[in-house]
Amino acid sequence: MAYVLNVAYVLLLIAAAPYLLYSRIRHGKYRDGWRQKLWGDVPRRRSRRTPCLWLHAVSVGEVNLLQPLIARWEKSHPDWEIVISTTTQTGYALAQKRYAPRMIFYAPLDFTWSVETSLRIIRPTILVLAELELWPNWIAAAQRAGTKVAVINGRLSAKSFRGYSRIAGWLHSTLAAIDLVAVQNTEYAERFVALGAPAKNVCLTGSMKFDGASMDRGNPATRKLSALAGIQDSDVVLLAGSTQAPEEQIALDVFQKLSPQHPNLKLLITPRHPERFDEVAALLDRSGVRWQRRSRLETAGSDPLARVLLIDVVGELGAWWGACQIAFVGGSLGRRGGQNMIEPAAYGAAISFGPNTWNFKDVVQLLLGKQAAIVVRDAAELQSFVARCLVESTFASHLGQRAKELVLQQQGATDRTVTLLETLAAKNLAPTLPAHPSWKKHENKRRAG
């Protein structure tokens, strides 16, 4: 199977080569880390005699997820070395910014030679994969090397489950080789077991994203950015975060319609993908509004007459959410399936998002169940929501307070995850934790089939 996968990966790389080359030239993507990706030529650890926790996070969201885990692990296990790998250029840049001087590098692609080389160089005690990373060659190589493998904050959407179900026979051995699958909820647990994960290895922890969210609007990063942008106490900030087209246009239209009656309204826009920063800048130029780029605030200073700010810097959105009173979480009016709405909830912002949020179905259900967020289905509904927040301050504050209380109630997943990893490190995976009955049912059904 390993060699079949190698051939398939090579063919995929050849097929994707024109797109990769175009993206490299046009957007500056896919330029770095190819020795690490193709050959597993990762950096050397300070000492291979010390135990090592290898944390892998695909991109920005997963990189942010690691922060509370790293803090807790290093506090309890100062003798361990933590190394961090990522896949995307933006994830790598954020990891360098957030976690240096720890060793940070690009993860090997799932070729047998690259994963085996990287494992031989690093010699991790535990390989930790964030959320959903089922790479057969990598996981098999780790098992052969005697490295324990864990998936943390595991999630398996209905769409992903349907896709993986088509190759369940191929995935069975991969899932069986994972020593721990720590999942966010029971629904995800049942899906992992149905695909082939042993029920005894699947544990429910909740979502670590609740733990990593800051709840203090007065944190140093938010204070610094607010001062840099010239945000005043009298301002009401609408932040459209992690947006995709046409959500920037929609947010801008809402601002232009409401700002004449509400001159204290300020709009912040954060596109999800950095390659779209210039596209959104051109949109703002055409609109005729007075606006600024976040990337130029240090040199140009804030313009008191500019009421729109384009946040064209990666890795700051978590702090910017703390500067807003009204939030629109993007990727939810198009086909991306939504973005993380826990961060604005933790700050107590009045939250809205579109109807297409299947990637965060569990969080959305919690928020809507507590009446802590509003679904807006189009531009008109977003305008009505923002207008109501501006006119009815108690509506906005109560909405935000319920969201903040929900986040507080959901915290604790990191502690549970660390406990499971500690047990795994001792080569004794939670033997006293029985499998949930419904998970066992799925395992029996899979075996019978």
Automatic annotation (TrEMBL):
Site (Transition state stabilizer): 131, 209
Gene Ontology biological process terms in this record: lipid A biosynthetic process; lipopolysaccharide core region biosynthetic process
Pathway where this protein functions: Bacterial outer membrane biogenesis; LPS core biosynthesis
Keyword S-adenosyl-L-methionine: no
Pfam families registered for this protein in UniProt: Glycos_transf_N
Gene Ontology MF: a single term: Kdo transferase activity
Subcellular location: Cell membrane
Active-site residue list: 62 (proton acceptor)
Reaction(s) catalysed (UniProt annotation): lipid IVA (E. coli) + CMP-3-deoxy-beta-D-manno-octulosonate = alpha-Kdo-(2->6)-lipid IVA (E. coli) + CMP + H(+)
Protein name: 3-deoxy-D-manno-octulosonic acid transferase
Name of the gene: waaA
UniProt superkingdom: Bacteria
Role: Involved in lipopolysaccharide (LPS) biosynthesis. Catalyzes the transfer of 3-deoxy-D-manno-octulosonate (Kdo) residue(s) from CMP-Kdo to lipid IV(A), the tetraacyldisaccharide-1,4'-bisphosphate precursor of lipid A.
Organism classification: Bacteria, Pseudomonadati, Planctomycetota, Planctomycetia, Pirellulales
Assigned keywords, A-Z: Cell membrane, Glycosyltransferase, Lipopolysaccharide biosynthesis, Membrane, Transferase, Transmembrane, Transmembrane helix
